[in-house]
Amino acid sequence: MAQLLFKDVNKVYPNGYHAVHDFNMEIKDGEFICLVGDSGCGKSTTLRMIAGLEDITSGEFYIDGKLANQMSSRDRGIAMVFQSYALYPHLTVYENLAFGLTLEGIDMDIIDEKVQATAKILGLTDYLERFPRALSGGQCQRVAVGRALIRKVNIFLMDEPLSNLDAKQRVTMRSEIKQIHRSVGATTIYVTHDQTEAMTMSDRIVVMKSGGYVQQIGTPYELYFYPKNLFVAGFIGEPPMNFIRGTVEGGKLKASGLELDLAPVVKDVKSIEGKKVVFAFRPEAIKLTKDKNSYQITSTVELTELLGDTTNVYATVGEGEEKVNVILKVNPHHTPEMGAQFNFVVPHKAAYIYDAETEEIVENDIKRH
If 0-12 CB within 10 Å is exposed, 13-18 middle and 19+ buried, where does residue 200 land? Predict the structure, then answer.
């Protein structure tokens, strides 16, 4: 196993571009960590600094308590899986898996034992004599994972390994990678732009924003139910969270024709009096029946998408310049007609209030489960 520690780690390139800003985090033995964010947020750069493929400009990086800033990649006990499979096309699956061990001069009997054991874990036993060109994308990716797995290292680094697969293969490989992690127990850092991958696979997620700024670190549950700022709220969740911007007047949100009492969802309403805020809620959090602990909002239906188990309703709230687009998820049996007026309910516990200027959440005591 391996424990990683980052203290104020920065990466600045010679041209002055600051790719990663003050990265601070402790990764426990055996954790599965996902780095997510938009393009240019520094997630792959962070992974490459862990691997020793990029120098750390400032700050300290430790592996099992040892300062690793100047440690060579070879000495870090790391195996890396890239987006491209990078398999040797002229070698069989068996030879691809065995290649690294062969270079190390390991006895052939031991190599065979390791290859067979790794192939069994990955379901590749029946494909050992095939060449990469005879494999599917998912099978090629399993071979790429196997080449890392066979080395028995303590740290696995994965840089968008599933991005070249189709949707069905990605779902299958997500499950397989998670099962491999459970069986091997190595500390794993996984980079992806797909928040669904991060939510379904990780123990904790690091959400990064363009320019290399860490926005929030937490479990999938924490990021989904307690996003600290607008970026995380909009990034985590599919479809994304709805935002309605307005001003607080007399303790009420006034926006897009709405007038909502904020006392039930804000700890100190007076602290935001006169401020511009963002009222936010998730598409799947709405209800159709109002009670005393909820807000009722009237919308106009623009478009509906039947997905089978649910329907996405694209609607507008308000009129004219104040009109705001929202997405709502409803039971397909309750799908409204396009152009119809549609009343929906946002429970108080599902409502979020953010300061429009700082984009940080306004303090509250709401338990959201």
Answer: middle
